[in-house]
Design a protein that fits this description.
alpha/beta, Rossmann fold, 2 domains, six-stranded parallel sheet, about 40% helix
Length: about 375
């Protein structure tokens, strides 16, 4: 029997992927988007439903394919004072409230997912949808460089109330067909379905000439992007000493009028293109920022987060694969950055790592979606 033509394929049931993306910062979206873009290149008629508390425009900026957005959050991750510090008291209250009626929450989630009728669920990295999918008989895969059960064990291991909650978390994660552990990532030895895959990162286009012309930069002026992800951390840049020949690119929300600073949103470039086009980025350790910086050849000045366990594997990895240098929070707040930047720019430039993880993840997810009635991969199809 001959294979169906593309016209015939369009009449087959559309494979439906339900994706749950945590809105705890922007790193979870940075992990998922390259995988979804890879899938959309290989399946002509993929239907995607995305649930996330992130704005639709933020999702569209990274995901090339069409999708339906359910504007809701199934997790909160951790309650933050700011980008650097966890509010442990508020986080403990939130987890205790979420698990006070855990079985009812799982039942409600199962009914919601059954109504969506996806062929596969992908979560980064909420555990409630995994528990709901298991109850509804829907195949599910988790993917991330961390999991919330591991972090709960780190922060609250000594708290009696956390024992049962962590057991429920782990049961949800282990109900998934597999957990795709990204490189770099935490060890996650407690996950029975752990499967390691490679680095996931988006590659940007070098727009530095256009950006420099737009900003009317001097020939010897360097651009430094300040980016702390989706959790607010405004810096007192107006009080910083001037760093010669440096232009700071800052979030527009800071409403900062400063001769050495420019808002980056009006430049009209994606974050990854900006990352690829600047001379350095100042950031906290985060998967999306570190992975994209290394893959796009951007040096990183970083300040450690307060007791965030994931940062150790990220820093160790970036030290091997990128140009990076640690600064203290005092140096950051006081703007004492000139010496650190000069030392950063003197470091040798290592080979750029290849972000092979998105293709690996897509290949692992494809069998469920092809079985849904869409047998053809589409050769030569490219994302926009």
């Amino acid at each position: 029997m001959s294979e169906p033509s593309h016209a015939d394929a369009r009449t087959l049931p559309r494979p439906h992927l339900f994706v749950d993306i945590s809105a705890h910062g922007l790193g979870h979206l940075a992990q998922v988007a390259p995988v979804l873009n890879a899938l959309s290149c290989r399946l002509e008629n993929l239907r995607m439903t995305l649930r996330s508390g992130l704005p639709t425009a933020t999702l569209q900026a990274r995901i090339n394919a069409e999708f339906t957005h359910l504007a809701a959050s199934s997790d909160f991750g951790y309650v933050m004072h700011d980008a650097m510090r966890v509010d442990l008291e508020a986080t403990a209250r939130a987890y205790r409230a979420q698990h006070a009626d855990w079985d009812l929450r799982v039942e409600h989630e199962a009914r919601l997912l059954a109504g969506q009728a996806p062929d596969l669920l992908l979560s980064d990295v909420a555990y409630l949808p995994l528990a709901g999918a298991a109850r509804a008989g829907i195949p599910a895969v988790a993917m991330c460089s961390l999991n919330w059960a591991g972090l709960l064990g780190h922060f609250f291991a000594a708290e009696g109330w956390a024992t049962e909650i962590r057991r429920q978390m782990l049961a949800a994660y282990n109900s998934a067909t597999c957990f795709l552990r990204l490189t770099p990532g935490m060890a996650m030895a407690e996950l029975s379905g752990r499967r390691d895959i490679g680095l996931v990162a988006a590659l940007g286009q070098d727009c530095r000439q256009a950006i420099r012309a737009r900003l009317r930069c001097a020939d010897d002026e360097r651009l430094v992007l300040i980016a702390f992800g989706g959790v607010s951390k405004q810096l007192p840049l107006a009080a910083w000493p001037r760093v010669a020949r440096v232009r700071w690119l800052v979030p527009q929300a800071w409403q900062l009028a400063h001769p050495c600073a420019s808002d980056f949103e009006p430049l009209g470039r994606s974050f990854t293109d900006l990352m690829c086009s600047v001379d350095a980025v100042i950031a906290k350790p985060g998967y999306g920022t570190f992975a994209e910086a290394a893959c796009n050849g951007t040096p990183v000045l970083y300040v450690r987060r307060q007791d965030w366990p994931e940062q150790h594997c990220l820093i160790d990895w970036l030290e091997r694969h990128g140009q990076c240098r640690e600064i203290s929070e005092v140096e950051l707040l006081d703007g004492q950055l000139e010496a650190a930047l000069e030392a950063l720019w003197q470091q040798p430039v290592p080979p750029r790592p290849l972000p092979v993880g998105a293709a690996e993840a897509a290949a692992l997810l494809l069998p469920w979606l092809r079985r849904a009635g869409h047998p053809l991969a589409v050769p030569g199809k490219h994302s926009r």
